[in-house]
Amino acid sequence: MNKTQKTFLAEKKWYVILIGISVVGLVLTTLFTIFTPKETIIPKTDFVITNNGGDQTRFKNIRFTGEVPEAKPKYPLATISPSTITAEYLKDQLIKEHSLKIVPDVPGLWKGEKFTLSYNTQDDSYLFYSNFSPKDNLISETNKATKVAQDFVKTVFNSLPLTMYKGGIKRFYGIGELREVSFGETTIIEVPFIYTINNIPLFLEHQKQAAISVLINSDYEVQKIVFQDKFIYPLLTEKNLTTIPINEAIDNINNRQEASIISAYNKETGTISLKEIESGDLTSVTIEYRADLNQKIAYPFYHFVGKLFSNEGKIIDAEIITPAVKVE
What we know:
Elements: H1 3-35, H2 46-49, E1 62-64, E2 74-82, H3 87-97, E3 101-102, E4 109-111, E5 115-120, E6 125-130, H4 142-156, E7 163-164, E8 170-173, E9 179-181, E10 188-197, E11 200-204, E12 212-216, E13 222-228, E14 232-242, H5 246-256, E15 260-265, E16 277-292, E17 297-310, E18 315-323
Parallel strand pairs: 1-16, 11-16
Antiparallel strand pairs: 2-14, 2-17, 3-4, 4-5, 5-6, 6-13, 7-10, 8-9, 8-10, 10-11, 10-12, 12-13, 15-18, 16-17, 17-18
């Protein structure tokens, strides 16, 4: 074999080696792509930018000055299915069990000797309450009152995956008109029950109310219950969502209008127009899941509380939610 042939064979050998390396690299890249899960991005729908009242707000100059909560780098996406028990079924059961009769010419109202049931079209909820005012006594045992509420929910709403929300328990003083108190003399205790995902509260759409609220009187009896007209069953998926930082969420509110006002109140005029917000100071934030019933999914949101300032100079006590993950 002459020198030219040896050189040719050597070059051919290196050529084969390079081809082999390229093929191996291509295979590894393909396998990495296949087995590396793609980042899940939530679609930006009207749910993200529509307020509780159905209108939309143009935000600008919103800032956050509160303490940043601890957040996980990723949160699981959940799917939403209708519950096997429906609010319509529970309504019919309450009507039957307590011999309630529909009130003529008053839609959504049933009345009996001891109890009344009504439907609130403004927040899509049922209200079931005693026709008699409780005694003017004080509740001395909070744990006993919450236990009564828990036992009631387990009996009546036993198929729903609900958890008592300790952070949402409210105390009231009074008989006819109830005044919320933070501590001290209490005649009524309101115990909320909510859905959760990995111990994180889950609320339906733009609602701020719990799925079920049970009010216990000083006789440790159920005085009133409020329950939503839609029951769900959340189920975790294997898809994880990457959490965005608070400053990015605020930027999304100001620059991409990715926020919903779920509560707004002006002390002078009550509710006001939310079309234009000139600025806002948000002072606290928590993380919670929100269920988009149209998309049948639930994912994390930042829930801000603070003050908004309208272009008319009105000060609004408000609560705002914005996705805690990427939406496009």
